[in-house]
Amino acid sequence: YGPWRFAKRYGEAIGFKAWQAAPYLQDAGSTTDGAAFNLIDAQTATLEQSIGLWSAWYGSAVDRANEGHASGYSLRVVAQDNYWGVSVANRPGYLADGGAKRLSFWVRHVAGTAPLPANARVRLRWLKEDGTAATGDDDTSYSDVALGADSDEWRQVVANVQPPAQTASVWVLLIGSSDSGAHAGASFLLD
Predict the structure, then answer these.
(1) pTM score above 0.85
(2) Quick one: CA dihedral 97, 103, 105, 110, positive or negative?
(3) SS3 string of 152-187?
(4) By CB neighbour count within 10 A (0-12 exposed, 13-18 middle, 19+ buried), where does 31 fall?
(5) Tens place of pLDDT for every residue, the chain, 191 residues?
(6) Helices within the chain (DSSP H only)
């Protein structure tokens, strides 16, 4: 399973929707069996062997914590500054399409650390085949889902998101900001 890619010519791939559209008009009646699958690679999603492709982007630190909700490990994020970000280091991201997506994760605040700002979130940046914004505008080509790491207890966050029609990939980010120094050193676990 997964978001298939189709070769036009050597080294040139297109997504399933483009494959079905003119001028190719291929597999017009094709569907999948509807089984759910994960767009994120196993190492990055499970954190069991490493932190996968998670990477501190700015104002943050990341490592693998020996404490997870469903497994032995989780991703620990420390917001070291008022403005912080963590990314999956694979820009332009994972192959995706314009079909509806379901985002699900477990999160909790790390006791004894500063609270996260209210705008701490997962940002799914939707990109076209050429790596530009799927909507044509960087300011609208994303879906934000609140982290909800306001408790020291594990909490499940589930959200349905709808990418723009031109989506070919998704870049996953964790971001937050505050003009107050009250959030520096905030830490949370993501599983």
Answers:
(1) no
(2) positive
(3) CCCEEEEEEECCCCCCCEEEEEEEEECCCHHHCCEE
(4) exposed
(5) 455 555 655 556 666 666 666 666 666 665 555 555 677 888 888 888 899 999 999 999 999 999 999 778 999 999 999 899 999 988 888 888 898 999 999 999 999 999 999 999 999 999 998 899 999 999 999 999 999 899 999 999 999 999 999 999 999 999 999 887 788 899 999 99
(6) 16-20, 42-46
Residue 75 tokens read as: 């991703």
Beta strands in the chain (DSSP E): 5-9, 12-15, 54-58, 60-65, 74-79, 83-88, 94-95, 101-109, 121-127, 142-146, 155-161, 169-177, 186-190
Helix (H/G/I), strand (E/B), else coil: 16: helix
- If one counts every other C-beta atom within 10 angstroms of the C-beta of residue 53, the result is 16
Check residue 10 and report its DSSP letter: T
The answer to whether the beta carbons of residues 40 and 171 sit under 8 Å apart is: no
Return d(Cα 184, Cα 12) in angstroms, integer.
Answer: 44
Taking a C-beta distance cutoff of 8 angstroms, is the pair 123, 82 a contact? no
Two tokens, residue 102: 């379901």
